[in-house]
Specification:
G protein-coupled receptor activity, three-stranded mixed β-sheet, 3 strands, 11 helices, mainly alpha, GPCR_Rhodpsn_7TM, about 325 residues, receptor, about 75% helix, transmembrane
């Protein structure tokens, strides 16, 4: 039916979060609630940061794009996952699988570097407040976001093409709830050395460089906060980056948990649980983190509830 690097398969079967039939409906409702909260929370952040005149700053510009990325990440995975809880044959077409992997990579790489851009924004705000609007100008913000999306798309296309360049001949059961590169390459019946190397190189490089930006930014932020003499000044400076620090800690903590496991303890099932967290739970948590700990967002939400029509007219 096919030869060389062409696949014999036209579809894959996703094993999902659990094989147990008695857990399918409870899990469906759990993840339906998670996805519903994710959509509501991120759409709320996107709307508020777009229409409220007091949230037109670089920090909220980056937050809006983080919310777009979180919404995209969940939407690439959750709807298909929810459908699969309700059907007995949990299939995804070959090209659907490739599209899902590409979409997932676009948004996960986008989130890694959007968090890095936000860390740089907080560094400038705290360490160089007088130059803030010059250093983080609207043009610079647009450039950083555009480069993030462009690089994410390039990474996704490169890695997806590598993963789907191998042959998939007989086994088509993916031990995951979405099409991810590691469980896909585990099914290959041809030499997967080059695709595995490309996946590892991109993953390691992206994580390393984004973490360097984040850690360097927060090292200087902590030093700057410690130099502030008044406790009120320190509290105010810390509050401007507390939400982002929490989001960064949760996100990178999950990724590091996956990548720093000893090989002897490493399994696709462990990766699956970590993946649930950073593809579905974190996108739900981020709007809560940024709204519950942020007075500006809470005030903007109150203004929006009082006069939604007026809020849209302001823009």
């Amino acid at each position: 039916m096919a030869s060389g690097n062409l696949t014999h398969l036209t579809e894959f079967i996703l094993r999902g979060v659990s094989d147990r039939p008695d857990l399918q409906m409870p899990l469906f409702f759990v993840f339906l609630v998670i996805y519903g909260l994710t959509v509501a929370g991120n759409l709320g952040i996107i709307t508020l940061t777009s229409v409220d005149s007091q949230l037109q700053t670089p920090m909220y510009f980056f937050l809006r794009h983080l919310a777009i990325i979180n919404l995209g990440d969940s939407t690439v995975i959750a709807p298909k996952m929810l459908v699969n809880f309700l059907v007995s044959k949990k299939t995804i077409s070959y090209y659907g699988c490739a599209a899902q992997l590409g979409g997932f990579l676009v948004f996960i790489v986008g989130e890694i570097f959007m968090l890095a851009a936000m860390a740089y924004d907080r560094y400038v705000a705290i360490c160089n407040p007088l130059l803030y609007m010059v250093v983080v100008s609207p043009q610079i913000c647009l450039l950083l976001v555009s480069l993030t999306y462009l690089y994410s798309l390039t990474t996704a296309l490169t890695v997806s093409c590598c993963v789907f360049s191998v042959s998939y001949c007989s086994s088509n059961v993916i031990n995951h709830f979405y099409c991810d590169n590691v469980p896909l390459l585990a099914l290959s019946c041809s030499d997967a050395y080059i695709p595995e190397t490309v996946v590892f190189a991109f993953s390691g490089t992206n994580l390393f460089f984004s973490m360097i930006i984040v850690l360097t930014s927060y090292f200087h932020i902590v030093l700057a906060i410690l130099r502030i003499r008044s406790s009120e000044g320190r509290r105010k400076a810390f509050s401007t980056c507390a939400s982002h620090m929490m989001a960064v800690t949760v996100f990178y903590g999950t990724l590091l948990f996956m990548y720093l496991q000893p090989r002897t303890n490493h399994s696709l099932d462990t990766d699956k649980m970590a993946s649930v967290f950073y593809t579905l739970v974190i996108p739900m948590l981020n709007p809560l983190i940024y709204s519950l700990r942020n007075k500006d967002v809470k005030d903007a939400f109150k203004r929006f509830l009082k006069s939604p029509c007026q809020a849209f007219k302001l823009v």
